[in-house]
Each structure stands twice: as C-alpha cells, then as structure tokens.
Amino acid sequence: MRRTLLVLLVILALAAAASFAVGPGLVESRLNRVRGPARTVSPAAQALHRRLLVADMHADSLLWGRDLLKRGTRGQVDLPRLREGNVGLQAFTVVTKTPRGLNVNRNDARAFDDITALALIQRWPRATWTSLTARALYQAARLRAMAERSGGGLVLLRSRADVAALLERRRQEPQVVGAWLGLEGAHALEGDLSRLDALHAAGYRMIGLAHFFDNEWSGSAHGLAKGGLTPLGRQLVPALESRHMLLDLAHASPAAIDDALALARRPVVVSHTGVKGTCDNVRNLSDDQLRRIAATGGVIGIGFWETAVCGPDERAIAAAIGHAVRVAGVDHVGLGSDFDGAVSTPFDASGLPRLTQALLQAGLSADEIAKVMGGNVARLLSEQLE
C-alpha cells in the first residue's frame, strides 16, 4: 500500500511538472495562431515599409511567459519579429482577469477566472493568485526586466522625453524598439483609486475602463448590464488625465463611451477595435463614435482579428482602416493588432509589410500610410505623456 501511494505521488508530481513545463505553450499555441499562407510583398511596398515608423497600440504578449527577447515558435510578437516588421513603438497591454466562457456578447464577472489558472500553471508569485493589482505589477516587472536585459534594444517609454530620445536613436539604430504599458480594464485597481499611483510608478501609461465584463468602474460592451461609468469611473477619468495617462475606450459599453467622452478633457484612445462600417457587431465602433473620439484629438487602433474586420486577411484590415480614415480623418487612425490576445491573425509582427501593401492597394497615399502605420501614435505619445 505504501509503495502504491509513493508511486501515485510520483506520478502526480511528474504530471504537475509537465503541466508547468508545457501547459502554457500548448494553450498559447492553440489560442494565438497565424492563419493562412505567406504572401509576397512587392519591392515598392517593402521599400515604403522600411521608411515608416510603425506603431502598434495593443499586444497581450506579457501574459504567456515567453522570453520576448528571443524569437518564438509560437504566438505573434517578440523582439526579433518586431524588428523584422520594422515596429518602432509597441504597446504591451496587460490582462488580469478573463471569465470562463469568454464571448463577445455577454460575460459574467463572477464566472471562474482563467487568468488564475494561468498564474498557477506559469508559477507566478503567490500574491498574483488572488490579487489583480499584483498581476498587473508582476507583468510590468517582466517587461522592465526584459528591457534591462536587452542591451538597449528594447526601451520602456514613460515620458515624452523617452519618446523623443527613442525616435532620435532610431535614426541611427532602426532596430531599437520602444515599449509602453497599457492595462486591459480598471478592475486591476480592485476598486481602489489610490492604486493608480503604483501602476503609474510601474510604467503604465494607458488604462482601459473595462475588458470583457462590467466592473466597479464601467460597463463593458460584453458585460451583463452594459451600463455607463459608475461614480468611481467618473473619478477615474480625471485621475488618469492628471497623471498624463491615456484613457483607453476599447471594450467599453456605448453608455460608458458616452460618459467618458463627456468628461474627457484630453485625447482618448481606442487601443484595438473594428468599425461597424465594415464589420457590424457589438465590439466595434459606430461612425458617430469614431467622429467623437477623433474630436478629442485621440487615435483609434484598428485590430487584425476577424471579429474586428470581418475578413481573414490584410485586405479586410485595410478596408476597416480606410473606412476609419474617411470618417474620423487620417490623423486619428492607427494600428491595434491585438497580437497574442487569444486571437488568430493573418500574419505576426514580422508580416506587417503585408499591411502596408494592402493599404497601397486600397488607395491610401504614402503620407497617409505613414500616419496610420505609426506617425499618429508617435505624435500622441510625444504630446500627451508627461
């Protein structure tokens, strides 16, 4: 009996070790896919793409435990692939909670949280098992550590001076990549506005009101009630602005978007979205919302996944961008890939020249493409960070 028990314990220990070693990789390989074949990019599009400053407002790569300084065999973003795609500015956005059964229409915040399981499997620090704030701080620390190990190849951006220095460096060192931190949902504050200071100190410069469920601050487009800003949320908007942190309206309910735009006194962003004009669903923005967000001076990041653009390839992304440009104006549209956000995309970060080619084919000029592919985001960061 004792020997049988010992054998069973060994088997359980080996199974646990195997889950820690391969579990996250298997999950990510299933969720973050690159679909479809590689496509040839013309010499003209390649040449234009090399001249661009490319900026992406949304990637959830910190969630998966990979060393982003190494070229991965799964997922969609790491430093080598960002360099291959000529990305100069990359937002790393942090997820702290996702309810089981995630869907675009209706999610209950009380459902089992899948990030708890991911934290356990990836052996995150004990504090992260129960605290959403700790999860945000842990993922921020991972990015800082990678930047410190990169030998200057990956630079964390906290201020407009950091952005200016990064852009100047890229004139001589086009391989350097600047990164800034964003947060998917204010629920990571756990109802405590004072925690905003700790997140700011950790490097966060962009915070969304909600993710896939209603929280203490705001209704979500995918929540149960889908309400507007709560009294706490009405305090959060000016608190972000006073700290020169960008307010991100991605995933917010229509009522919350209305409330936030009524309160905002600085430019707001939508880090990753689609547009109803080419893909009509509850996730995407109406033409009226596009115009009102642009009126703040903000930037709307167009996503790369099929729910955002209703198509399987870069032509659908280019069509959504073209619609947003016509409605909001070319100065207010950017990229919001949602790379590594449990989505399939037609290419990874290294394949971004394909989007430049699709935008050329859609009729955008080189100057318009330069703004959409990164110029608008660079301008926003340069003007709005402290």
Written overview of the protein:
The chain has 386 residues and is an alpha/beta fold. The protein has a single domain, classed as Metal-dependent hydrolases (TIM Barrel, Alpha-Beta Barrel). Helices cover 44% and strands 11% of the residues. It is built from 14 helices and 9 strands. It has helices at 2-31, 43-51, 79-84, 114-121, 132-149, 160-172, 196-201, 231-242, 254-263, 287-295, 306-309, 314-328, 353-361, 366-384, and strands at 54-56, 87-94, 154-156, 177-183, 204-208, 246-248, 269-273, 299-302, 333-335. Strands 1, 2, 3, 4, 5 and 6 form a 6-stranded parallel β-sheet that branches. Strands 7-8-9 form a 3-stranded parallel β-sheet. Helix 6 (160-172) links the parallel strand 3 and strand 4 (177-183). Helix 2 (43-51) crosses helix 13, helix 6 (160-172) crosses helix 14 (366-384) and helix 12 crosses helix 13. The longest helix is centred in the N-terminal third of the chain and has 30 residues, at 2-31. It is globular and about 50 Å long. The termini are far apart.
Range of helix content: 40-55%
> Which fold name corresponds to the CATH topology?
TIM Barrel
Shape: globular
- Major beta sheet summary: 6 strands, parallel
Produce the secondary structure layout.
Layout: H1 2-31, H2 43-51, E1 54-56, H3 79-84, E2 87-94, H4 114-121, H5 132-149, E3 154-156, H6 160-172, E4 177-183, H7 196-201, E5 204-208, H8 231-242, E6 246-248, H9 254-263, E7 269-273, H10 287-295, E8 299-302, H11 306-309, H12 314-328, E9 333-335, H13 353-361, H14 366-384
Parallel strand pairs: 1-2, 2-4, 3-4, 4-5, 5-6, 7-8, 8-9
Helix pairs in contact: 2-13, 6-14, 12-13
